[in-house]
Amino acid sequence: MHFINTKKPSLDKLIKLFDASNIGLWEMFPDNTVHFFNANFYKSFNVSLENSTLDQWIANIHPEDQSQFEKGIETHVHSRIESFKSEYRVYNRSGEIVWIEAQGIANFDESGKLIFMVGSHTDITLQKNYNEKLYQMAYLDEQTRFFNRKKLEEDITIYIRAAHPFTIVLLDFDPIYHLVKIYGHSFSKEILELGSKVIKMLSKDQYQAYRISNSEFALLSKDIVERSAVMNLFTQLQKSILSYSEKIKFLSASKFNMSALNYPIENDPLTAEEVLTRAYMTLMDSQRKGSGIISFYSAQTKACILRNLHIETHMMQGLHHNEFYIVYQPILELQEKEIACFEALLRWHSSAFDLIMPDEFIPVSEANQEIIALGNFVLERSCAFIAAYNFKHKTEVKIAVNVSIIQLLDPSFSDRIKELVHQFALAPNQLILEITESIMFEKSDCIMHNLKDLKAQGIGIALDDFGTGYASLNNLIQIPLTELKIDREIMAQTLNNTSVISFLKSIVDLCHKNNITIVAEGIETIEMAEIAVLLNIDYLQGYYYSKPLSSEEGCKLSPKAFSKN
Question: Alpha helix locations (H) across 394-487?
Fold first, then answer.
């Protein structure tokens, strides 16, 4: 017969068992006397195994954790909490930090007085270090040691859930990073270190810093920051960046952009992703305005940004969905007031934003090269319109089409024009291409070759909006022009400024001597029309005679419709 040994293990055996592990045992009494039982664990710490005191153990605890530890003990005793668990840092005899997990139970008498506490200490340093490494991998940028985008999103989420107002600032150093192509990656590293140093210095008191992309940083304040304070931060950053490095002193102080957003911003609560999207939209707004700009989020800013974003991303979609159309404004011969030409004007009726004017979408289309597709659309539709008009009215009215510098930089552009003229059976002089004064700054052989080739074919070349840019008399002679269009604002000044009339008179005479005809734009009153007659201008265009017309309206219009005016 086998008997089960029910004899309880002795305390010595238990202590030896724990000595073989990474766990220490302790007991404490109401007078704060502490006994540490297993020497193998506690020999690493500056304590006595027997008749030690709580103060002796507290002396080993990291100063930042001592207050929390003491409050924990006090709470357990006064609140009669029987079991507890905590984590804190202590120094071992070598001065190294060890993470301790303390677990214990407290025993109280019937009156609630503490009889004793017993528990264990476990060295969890390896686990803590591993968790810290995982934390750093998850939340810290390796190069700057700033928090990353993931941490930013989590911190914003915490503020939102707590209904706590905050300010987020985004910084974009992208213009500086473009210089990496010139100076190499060592320069990029220097810029990154410099930017990080400056951001850390200026943000330490009010903001938490984050690196959220290669060239973008974020600053998050747990309180609302006034606009003036953000502006001051922006100014300090500009000054500090240039004062830190001799190598980048050649850079302008305005080589980064900033946006700022205060939360809450709308009635409905937003997610962290939605907040960041609005902050990025505001940053995009500052980037559109140039480098060295700061933008503040508002409802108006949001509407403007969404509109601009739509223009940037939906232009080709709008073209394919027939949202673009052309209107045609008549240009009249001065004496008989017969229609001599139509100017083709592109419009965009967006399904999302209704009418979008050319001064909004043309610069964007030039920046992203979509002007090529838009330009081809206008040229084809305009040639088709004038061919149909002339066929119906048995006349030879011309069509004027605006072209971009981007189009003229295409070596095959003049050949494309030849094909269109042939395709629609037009006489070459029935097509006039309008260019702007900005072409003066393009020292391109390709542009000049295209213009000269087109003029040699008989295609008209008109300089549009004369008087608004930087055209010189010398340029008027050098560029192969056939026509000059005087801007509406200059024509409006002729009503009350005789010196403008004298200036235009000399321009008209010079152009006529060089076989360049003149069109007066923006004729809105009979007085302006009479001044045009006085100046001997060749053609008139403006709302006094006709607004821009749809292709159907224009095609119905008789060439002599205004001859009685």
Answer: 405-408, 413-423, 445-457, 473-478
pLDDT, tens digit (0-9, with 9 covering 90-100), for 325-335:
999 999 999 98
Which amino acid, 49? Answer: L
Helix 149-161 / helix 125-139 crossing angle, nearest 10 deg: 100
CB distance 283 to 172 below 8 Å: yes
DSSP SS3 for 211: strand
Sole residue written with tokens 């008789």: 558
Write the CA distances from 530 to 93, 341, 520, 526, integer angstroms: 102, 20, 11, 6
145 φψ region: left (φ > 0), alpha (ψ -120 to 50), beta (else): left
CA distances from 516 to 345, 384, 460, 512, 529 (A): 23, 26, 10, 5, 20
Between CA 116 and CA 554 the distance in angstroms is: 102
Residues 62, 33 contacting (CB under 8 angstroms): no
**Residue 269 preceded by cis peptide, ω within 30:** no
Beta strand 52-53 pairing with 257-263? unpaired
The CA distance from 538 to 459, in Å, is 18
- pLDDT tens figures, 191-217: 666 667 777 777 667 888 888 887 788
Q: Is 420 exposed, middle or buried (CB count within 10 Å of its CB: 0-12, 13-18, 19+)?
A: middle
Give the 3-state secondary structure percentages of the chain, helix then strand then coil, rounded to 5: 45, 20, 30
Which amino acid makes up residue 58?
Answer: I
3-state SS class at 16:
helix
pTM for the model stands at 0.63
pLDDT one-digit tens code per residue, 422-447: 999 999 999 999 998 777 666 678 88
Nearest of 325, 327, 343 to residue 522 by alpha carbon: 343
- Decide if pLDDT at 177 tops 80: no
